[in-house]
Amino acid sequence: MSVIEVLAEACGPEHVWEAGPADRVDGVPAGWVVAPGSAEEVSGVLRAAATAGLSVVPSGAGTKLDWGLPPAHVDVLMDLGRMSGVLDHAPDDLVATVAAGTPMRALRAHLLRVGQRIALDVASPGATLGGVLATNEAGPLRHRFGTPRDLVAGVRVALDEGSLERHLDGHDLARQVCGSFGTLGVITEATVRLEPMPSARAWVVRPVSTPREVQQLTEALVSSSLGAAAIEADLPGGAGRPAELAALFEGSRAGSAARAEAAAHLLGGGASVEPAPPEWWGRYPFDADDVALKIWGQPSELFAVVYALRDAAGMPVPVRGSVGAGIAHVALPVTTPAERLAGMLTAARTVLMARGGGGCTLLRAPADLRDLVETYGPARLCDATVRLKLALDPEERMAPGRLPAC
After folding, report:
1. DSSP secondary structure string, 342-365?
2. Closest C-alpha among 144, 270, 143 to residue 205
3. How far apart are CA 375 and CA 361, in angstroms?
4. Can you give the pLDDT at residue 406?
5. Is residue 331 within 8 Å of residue 285, measured between CB atoms?
6. How many CB atoms lie within 10 A of CB 12?
7. Helix, strand or coil, per DSSP, at residue 23
8. What is the pLDDT of residues 151-167, one digit of tens each?
């Protein structure tokens, strides 16, 4: 039997086709595309792929397929777009079980009807829940609620040989598949923790002049009793607009307004209370064609990394992110020379290691540039991830080559 015939037995001939020029994962072309419609069909596809010795890379909306390391090869690109919808929702228990291919905007709309939300305000347009979990993507609300690893109560995962599992002895499967980039298995559904929608929200926005000032003001907010839900900074690096620090306050109408006013007074320097976020809030600083970096470390030390990046680049660079949580993203022009990019990565990693730990990831770059630098740096994978990968995918058929560093 041909590959298409083998895959078609799992999910129907109308849902399998030979890949076209656009069917790529970070530039690596796929051989075939398959679109299963249920967890059982995902299981069948993986069994067929295992029998034929084919590699599989799962995809939701494809918004982050160019993040991290490219796969070594892509025999089968698995499109999970048909697997969409809220499978179960217990409003009183503040949990919902959701199919992995569900767009985040559709999940938000469903939850809004009962005054609830999932605290994953990610920036990727069109992102699906499965894609958000697979990359452990989070937005400004991570300051208060954490990342997907903190918000997922359970998952159902299809493993390389086709079995469907919710638990693995000795492993926290729900946490470990978050950020695994599809290398441990295919997430088919997830049970997520929810939050009541706040009655009101208010933002405090303050102009800033230096990364050091951002750090000092952030520390003032964090050490106060005001309870910001998110603290973000935008340092445009000469992009024609002022640098700003912004904080979100949620709760009752009177309570959020009072805390926002108190925060504006604490920050001083022209801080204002606004009913809506600044235009840059919750967005990445990079565009589709930019080189993108992600930095993380002690919140009190991010300012030093920004200075190190500026020195290595020879100019200010756009930086934006959740400074209260110690996470930010950096945008660089695609014309950045490889030796300069390597110098920036080394400088950032050196400063972070000297100041309490952290990391700097080359999140996205053209293949010819990325081949010349270390995407994740010298830090090795954590032992638990290595053991789990070897146990679940000994032949490395699941997204081979994309396993990220911890």
Report:
1. HHHHHHHHHHHHHTT-EEEEEEE-
2. 270
3. 6
4. 41
5. yes
6. 14
7. coil
8. 999 999 999 999 999 99
pLDDT tens-digit profile of 202-215? Answer: 999 999 999 999 99
Whole-model pTM?
Answer: 0.95
How is 233-297 classified by DSSP, letter by letter?
A: EEE-SSSSS-EEEEEEEEESHHHHHHHHHHHHHHH-TT-EEESS--TTTT--S--TTSEEEEEEE
Q: What is the dihedral of CA 42, 46, 47, 50, to 10 degrees?
A: 180
Neighbour-count burial of 379, counting CB atoms closer than 10 A to its CB (0-12 exposed, 13-18 middle, 19+ buried): middle
Which residue is associated with the tokens 């053209």?
366
Other C-beta atoms lying within 10 Å of the C-beta of residue 199: 13
Summarize pLDDT for 334-367 with one digit per residue, the tens. Answer: 999 999 999 999 999 999 999 989 999 999 999 9
Measured CA to CA in angstroms, residue 355 lies from 297, 305, 367 at distances of 8, 10, 31
Amino acid at 303: F
Of residues 124, 127, 88, the one with CA closest to residue 106? 127
User: What is the overall mean pLDDT for the chain?
Assistant: 95
150 residue type, one letter: D
User: Quick one: pLDDT band at residue 239, thresholds 50, 70, 90?
Assistant: low
Amino acid at 240: G
The one-letter amino acid at 279: E
The tokens of 195 are what? 């939050």
Number of Cα atoms under 13 Å in the Cβ half of residue 395: 13
Residue 405 has pLDDT above 60, yes or no: no
Q: What's the confidence (pLDDT) of residue 150?
A: 97
* 175 vs 159: CA distance, rounded Å: 16
SS3 59: strand
Amino acid sitting at position 401: G
Average pLDDT in the 172-196 region?
A: 96
CB 361 within 8 A of CB 294: yes
Span 243-301, pLDDT tens digits: 999 999 999 999 999 999 999 999 999 999 999 999 999 999 999 999 999 999 999 99
**Alpha helices, DSSP H only, in 86-147?**
104-112, 129-135, 142-145
Strand partners, 233: 245, 321
The pLDDT of residue 213: 97
Pairing, β 319-322 against β 272-274: unpaired
The span from the CA of 9 to the CA of 75, in Å, is 17
Listed residue (75, 55, 77) closest to 396, CA to CA: 55
